[in-house]
Automatic annotation (TrEMBL):
This is Delta-1-pyrroline-5-carboxylate synthase. The gene is Aldh18a1. It comes from Panurus biarmicus (Bearded tit). It is found in: Mitochondrion matrix. Residues 323-588 form the Aldehyde dehydrogenase domain. One of its GO terms (cellular component) is mitochondrial matrix. Bifunctional enzyme that converts glutamate to glutamate 5-semialdehyde, an intermediate in the biosynthesis of proline, ornithine and arginine. CDD domains: AAK_P5CS_ProBA (cd04256), ALDH_F18-19_ProA-GPR (cd07079). Keywords: Amino-acid biosynthesis, ATP-binding, Kinase, Mitochondrion, Multifunctional enzyme, NADP, Nucleotide-binding, Oxidoreductase, Proline biosynthesis, Transferase.
């Protein structure tokens, strides 16, 4: 057995029943025994006199929830000194006021100075009140708490150590939450940190070292250290270049500059890191996080246990590749270099990628076969998703054709002048197109999405982060490798990054300082989750594809069944597939209506009746549960409307502003529908399936947007560009244009430069 020291009373075995510390945040949900250390700044108010009751109540609620899940929770708490300070100040003020009133005989009291209160006396006065508060709070959740006070001397005596260990185990066995604190009423003054500098020994000097010591002694799975900073930074928090360190590894101390200590308490961040590393070496995972921030303190503990990216996680396992933050920075730098290339060079990269898709088709299809076999063996994908996952020679050929279209149309996308104005003499203003920055595209079961989106990002000069579903891991890996091979011909390999770490989508959506736009490609649930999780990052996409086809009284018999069949049956899993069929009331019980029903039955489409349609039938199909349903399969809803106006109203009420179609030979009715339906795509006598970037001639699309800002409908290169203003002057200042100035505004529109005809 390896020991921490040759001194018997601090011998701790490294080989323990619960094994090594967790390697990844995602494993923290398996933590059974957890220590939560509450720093003085977390427990006390901003005036350092009294407790932050609301914050403390929230922490107790989270600990209780985890305890009731069957975990074994322990709390190492500060706060006795602050609570005692509040009580003693009150007593002193009351005592002084009584004496002064008796002495002066006056009811008016003069200003009274509060003497400096000795910390140990404050601790003695506050300890019982602090514990009573914890007991009252935990009682609300039917949980019992027990107080344990310790000093460093308790760890120096082998018998006391055993007694402490036994007491804690017995309390945990009885489902009691131990509340542990240093006995500050008798604790000696702190000693230098000599035992924390490179030696495997730790003394109890503050609650950080106490928490680490207890975590190792009790073979704890997780130690959560809550302070008043977000975690560990690579330089003092608040400095210009300070960045939060997501994962900290042993040996990284040299790259970190420590700031000042916490506003209250004994331990600074350096002490926390040393205590955390000591606990980590003993087999306990550690997270240091902010327990005071009002937006996160209400769920910080549960978020950590759920594996969310909160604070700094200490790990002994370094990932093989870069972190996602490093990948985002590489994508930004690569994207800026990409944008600075000549248009012909960006096009050359895309042409090269198109060639690789056909030249390397055997390797691509082999990787895709592995994904399909794994998905089928695990049985985790529905048939529509398996179809999306599948690649074929024809799909790769179509991809290559689309990429060549993108290359041909991208010649003047970046840096195109869209407005020129002469502000004044020799003062000209231009508005030019520029890349958005770094795009994060999250996609499910669609490996063909990777080269499409990569080509659009390359053409528009954007850096790109790709997060694909694990079901397409092999396909995505080879397609990304080919993309980087194409990028390498002009030295911009890093512009497109594939995220292969265990990063949760929700954590990626929080990288608001690194990512400029999120584009989800997948199920409506995925899109909704991303829209909910995105913190300060715009999301381009649509949460649902509830597409309608309205059959008017003047519809052509020949066109109706062809358009409906194509819209519903050609690819029912697509977001642009028909979901609700609206039929004019006058068409019921006509040969045309019978043809529609017969065709749907032949195609094995399950029909759900809308409320009005069901009322016309004696024996109707199953009535629809909701008119806002995206089936994504061979199912659809049929509903009856009385007019084109009612069809428009129905679409506005139940649709998702994606794609809606009218089938009619009446041009006036068609134009009314086209002008009044407020959707991204509105068609006349054409299948909903035309709502696609490739079919629109965009080469490909990053997605279909139903948003009303920036881009709408299938989004190609233009939707991945924004603008900036360039002003060229000659010693111009605003004061020259004042009432008595020498210059006047002209605001003349200037002709735009000729676009590249090719």
């Amino acid at each position: 057995i390896r020991c921490w020291s040759n001194i018997p009373f601090i011998t701790v075995p490294l080989s323990r029943a619960h094994g090594k510390s967790f390697a990844h945040r995602s494993e923290l949900k398996h933590a059974k025994r957890i220590v939560v250390k509450l720093g003085s700044a977390v427990v006390t108010r901003g005036d350092e006199c009294g407790l932050a009751l609301g914050r403390l109540a929230s922490i107790v609620e989270q600990v209780s929830m985890l305890q009731n899940q069957g975990r074994e929770m322990m709390i190492v708490t500060s706060g006795a000194v602050a609570f005692g300070k509040q009580r003693l100040r009150h007593e002193i003020l009351l005592s002084q006021s009584v004496r002064q009133a008796l002495h002066s005989g006056q009811s008016q009291l003069q200003d009274m100075a509060i003497p400096v209160l000795e910390a140990r006396a404050c601790a003695a006065a506050g300890q019982s009140g602090l514990m009573a508060l914890y007991e009252a709070m935990f009682t609300q959740y039917s949980i019992c708490a027990a107080q344990i006070l310790v000093t460093n001397l308790d760890f120096h005596d082998e018998q006391k150590r055993r007694n402490l260990n036994g007491t804690l185990h017995e309390l945990l066995r009885m489902n009691i939450v131990p509340i542990i604190n240093t006995n500050d009423a008798v604790v000696p003054p702190p000693e230098p940190n000599s035992d924390l500098q490179g030696v495997n020994v730790i003394s109890v000097k503050d609650n950080d070292s106490l928490a680490a010591r207890l975590a190792v002694e009790m073979k704890t799975d997780l130690l959560i250290v809550l302070s008043d900073v977000e975690g560990l930074f690579d330089s003092p928090p608040g400095s210009d270049d300070a960045k939060l360190i997501d994962i900290f590894y042993p040996g990284d101390q040299q790259s970190v500059t420590f700031g000042t200590k916490s506003r209250v308490g004994m331990g600074g961040m350096e002490a926390k890191v040393k205590a955390a590393l000591w606990a980590l070496q003993g087999g306990t995972s550690v997270v240091i996080a902010n327990g005071t921030h009002p937006k996160i303190s209400g769920h910080v503990i549960t978020d950590i246990v759920e594996g969310k990216k909160v604070g700094t996680f200490f790990s002994e396992v370094k990932p093989a590749g870069p972190t996602v933050e490093q990948q985002a920075e590489m994508a930004r730098a690569g994207g800026r270099t990409l944008a600075a290339l000549q248009p012909e060079q960006r096009a050359e990269i895309i042409y090269r990628l198109a060639d690789l898709l056909t030249d390397q088709r055997e390797e691509i299809l082999l990787a895709n076969k592995k994904d399909l076999e794994e998905a089928e063996n695990k049985g985790r994908l529905a048939l529509p998703l398996l179809k999306r996952l599948s690649l074929s020679t024809s799909k790769l050929n179509s991809l290559a054709i689309g990429l060549r279209q993108i290359a041909a149309s991208s010649q003047d996308s970046v840096g195109r002048v869209i407005r020129r104005t002469r502000i004044a003499k020799d003062l000209d203003l231009e508005q030019v197109t520029v890349p958005i920055g770094v795009l994060l595209v999250i996609f499910e079961s669609r490996p063909d999405c990777l080269p499409q989106v990569s080509a659009l990002a390359i053409a528009s000069g954007n850096g790109l982060l790709l997060k694909g579903g694990k079901e397409a891991a092999h396909s995505n890996q080879i397609l990304h490798h080919l993309t980087q091979e194409a990028l390498s011909i002009h030295g911009v390999r890093d512009a497109v990054q594939l995220v292969n770490t265990r990063e949760e989508v929700e954590d990626l959506c929080r990288l608001d300082k690194l990512i400029d736009l999120i584009i989800p490609r997948g199920s409506s649930q995925l899109v909704r989750n991303i829209q909910k999780a995105a913190k300060g990052i715009p999301v381009m996409g649509h949460s649902e594809g509830i597409c309608h086809v309205y059959v008017d009284t003047d519809a052509s018999v020949e066109k109706v069944t062809r358009i409906i069949r194509d819209s519903k049956c050609e690819y029912p899993a697509a977001c642009n597939a028909l979901e609700t069929l609206l039929i004019h009331r006058d068409l019921l019980r006509t040969p045309l209506f019978d043809q529609i029903i017969d065709m749907l039955r032949v195609e094995q489409v399950k029909i759900h009746a809308g409320p009005k349609f069901a009322s016309y039938l004696t024996f109707s199909p199953s009535e629809v549960k909701s008119l806002r349903t995206e089936y994504g399969d061979l199912e659809c809803c049929i509903e009856v409307v009385d007019s084109v106006q009612e069809a428009v109203e129905h679409i506005h009420k139940y649709g998702s502003s994606h794609t809606d179609v009218i089938i009619t030979e009446n041009e006036k009715t068609a134009e009314f529908f086209l002008q009044h339906v407020d959707s991204a795509c509105v068609f006349w006598n054409a299948s909903t399936r035309f709502s696609d970037g490739y079919r629109f001639g965009l080469g490909a699309e990053v997605g279909i947007s139903t948003s009303r800002i920036h881009a709408r409908g299938p989004v190609g290169i233009e939707g991945l560009l924004t603008t900036k203003w360039l002003l060229r002057g000659d010693n111009h200042v605003v004061s020259d244009f004042s009432e008595h100035g020498s210059m006047k505004y002209l605001h003349e529109s200037l002709p735009l430069p000729q676009r590249n005809a090719s």
